[in-house]
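Task 17 of the worksheet. Students: predict the tertiary structure of the chain below and write it out as structure tokens. Keep your answer in the requested format; marks are given for formatting as well as content.
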Amino acid sequence: MIFSHLFGRIVGVLTALLVVLTPTPVPAQTPAPVPVQTTADPLINEFVANHTGSDTFEFVEVNGDASTDYSTFAVIQIEGNGGMPGVIDSVFDVGTTSADGYWTTAFLSNVIENGTMTLLLVENFTGSVGDDVDTDDDGAPDVTPWDRVVDGVAVTDRATPGDLTYADVTLAPNFDQIIVTPGGASRIPDATDTDMVADWTRNDFDGAGLHGFVGTLDEREALNTPDAENRTEPDDGGTGIGACGEEATGIHAVQGTGATSPVVGTEVVVEGVVVGDFQDNAASDDGQLDGFFVQEEDSDADADPATSEGVFVFAPGADDVRTGDVVRVLGTAAESETSGGASSRTELRSVVETLTCDPATLPAPTTVELPITSPGAFEQVEGMRTVFPQDLIISEYFNYDRFGEIVLSLPFEGQDRLYQPTAVVEPGAEANGLQAQIALRRITLDDGRADQNPDANRHPNGELFTLGNRFRGGDTVTNTAGVIDDTFGRYRIQPTAGADHVAANPRPAAPEHVGGDVTVATFNVLNYFLTIDRGQNDCGPDRSQGCRGADDSDGFGRQRAKILAALAAIDADVFGLIEMENTTGVEPLADIVAGLNDLLGAGTYDYVDTGTIGGDAIKVGIVYKPGTVSPIGEFAILDSSADPRFLDDFNRPVLAQTFADSDGGVFTVAVNHLKSKGSPCDAVGDPDAGDGQGNCNTTRTKAAEALVDWLAGDPTNSGDEDYLIVGDLNSYDREDPVDAVLEGTDDQLGTKDDYTDLLRRYQGELAYTFVFDGLSGYLDHAMSSRTMTEQVTAVTAWRINADEPDILDYDTSFKSAEQVAVYEPNQYRSSDHDPVIVGLDLDASPVCDAARALPQRLRYQESNFVPIWIGGVTDSEDAWVRIRTSSIFQDEAVDAIGSGDTAPDGFGIGRRIPWVRAERVANGNGRVYQIGFTATDTRGGTCTGEVSVQVPVGDGQAIDDGPLFDSTIVP
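Model answer:
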């Protein structure tokens, strides 16, 4: 039997007193015995396995001696439901107790069973999760990977025959005359242990005491009090709070100088001014967080800048307070941990009583400026009234529609926003150092609410976000005022007033003009799927993968309208599209072409019909205007079969197609979508190397190397060296895959096979097409081969998506009705990537078909060389064409008998003018020279041809007969 822990403590104290008060004679020659320090066994003191809503805020609390290391103990959870009873579901290693004797697990989600289960506190546990301690399922452990069981408690729902429990005390439905299964329970008072169910009081199922829950205790229920004294609703009438103006604990003492409160678990009384009212009650307030922020009056603040003067009071259902009220609060100091402990907000919870006193002048706001000095510097003003006077840039809005969050930042000197480190510096130490600096230049502006996808979103200016009151990334926000909070992985401002907003980055109505006679655009259209995503695996080439597009037909209609609006406005001659559905029998390109032709006229667009490509659920595709360009030959695909370095289980296969314009200009576009950074490539030994390039960098780099080598082999048989690589490389411009493309096939810069980064060349180092985690850069690329670069007129990124908050997109998933209504069927926020547009002034290559030799006939002059000019080569755009001789052949043997006994008979390979001998075999039928050449215009366009020169016998024609001999060879 486990004796009462509380009784043991009392006996221990009384014994110690008797030892002190009762003298014990000791012989002089006998040394006094050294007292032995003993540690009492801990007990499971409280647990929560279930409550209203989703299974969050589960925990197990252990009670023992204060500030004691109990690391030899562990709490194990044993499955009790019939079918797998006796299996260890989870193990929680106990640590050191607080100053009040409590150790509690972190808040858990979906870890502790809601049905039948047992919690055992054991010493020296050596087993593992998954062990079966009751192999014969008789309700008694026959495998015991521990030295001893110190304590235990079980819960049963009596729902399944064969349910088993493994503790002396089992809490079943009706154990306390309440017929439902308890979701949690507390020993009342702490550490009461008679091995009877009477030791336990069920916790309020509505979560009273837990952050974010509003519960109402009845007389048979306990508060949920992790890391604090177990208790039922107080019956002291609030007499412990004292009167207004009486002595109270300083809020700075509750906050302390560290990241967490030094008095966690201690009941305290604080008095201060309400600086942020987030109760969401009948009175006007700042939001809904089930509580309010209290700050010491300026006259009561301490002189230590390391201690905050503010604290959050979590008090669902508490009496109404208003900003400016002086309040006294009796509650327990606690740390509310979120995001796995990444955030820890100091607060008062388990509030017993609040007392409203006379109003007072608000404390002066603390001015905070970015960059801060260290990542934890905001802790010094946690819970305090603050103002950020600087012009800060709106740089992130990914969580705006769901959580109302916006990230504000201070750019570096000379920049208008913050950029991805590997977009501006080299990966590795330089990028990581920049990332550390960036962390000091950001703060999250929240909306003061805990609900998701609210009916209306708060604009930074304090008004509602509407189509007439929008913001964009790159806009500025000044004089941002609120209270500093530490939740969900970030320090944040819970606003108490609207900031000054300036639309510094207005929407571009149309893309910048790029010139040229042909335009090529690349656009990631964000999972354009005709198959509706109903949560089933019916997409992909074998219809075994999940769909990724709209969740219903209405959502698809909204998506389609936006995509078509963007494509029609760009009006490119060739589009390389990314993230198209890749399902057998479904062709999203046909749907897009049909929509564009409805808008722009029948036959305006067509597409390259590839069918499915590769094995992924998405593919790349090409749409083009047949009125301005024509496909030449067949398309080509780069996948693992073409080059084993290109892993198409990760990268989407590349699609290449050659086109010609009406003037004969030829070029090949290669559309890419390499592996993303968002999921690992550990299966192929390619983890995140920690250098700023994310997951799968080697996989992308090898694919890029394969790409340039593949194009160098002319996969479309175009005979033309004008290549334009476009698409989403999932790499910023300083990263290895981009370098691999720019270096070309020889893997070094500064050589003839190099490619040019067109966005960097025309838009500069700070170009961007995408925003992730509040940092800008471009993943969407346009890169040209050497000869192609000379034909590019301009390049731009049309900023219609990356700077727009996604509350404006087509997706209706999770959005409230009011959010769904904030929609326009236009190009803005049609995707999350900005399209890239390239202007081309295509060079029509020289025409060699009419080339002729000048002269074409030579009078016999034994052994004499004669220069030959090549004429008749034309170019529609250039007056100057360079001719280079590539070969000279003849139909008679070099130095043949009777030909003058000379060799060689021709020279000038690589020169403009070839020379041939005006000779022939004396008794032959004349000599014919065949001279091959290459013509190149000023933009690198080429053609090849051949001309002939005769050395006849007499005035007739030389007869071309017999095998050809290389005129330049000495036999």
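Marker's comment: The CA atoms of residues 11 and 17 lie 10 Å apart. The longest strand covers residues 343-356.
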